[in-house]
Design brief:
Blueprint lengths: L2 H4 L5 H54 L5 H5 L6
């Protein structure tokens, strides 16, 4: 005799209750995983925002450190009068 034959058979109601229990357990686990994924995505989003701000600050600092050219010297050689 196999193990299935040695166990008493389930009624349809018991089987439905068992399946409902399994589905509820899976739903609970999926909710937990979903919450963890949302937290990780939020953390990544915050880190990306911070990185974008840092890069923006670096570009701004580089622009400020760039020597300014005098507009009069850049156009002085182009006039032929």
């Amino acid at each position: 005799m196999s193990t299935l034959e040695s166990q008493p058979s389930m009624t349809a109601t018991e089987f439905a209750a068992y399946i409902d229990s399994v589905v509820e357990t899976l739903q609970t686990k999926m909710d937990g995983v979903s919450g963890q994924m949302n937290e990780k995505l939020e953390d990544m989003s915050n880190r990306i925002d911070s990185l974008e701000q840092t890069l923006s600050d670096v570009v701004k600092q580089m622009d400020e450190q760039k020597p300014r050219q005098d507009p009069a010297t850049t156009t002085a050689g182009t006039e032929d009068s």
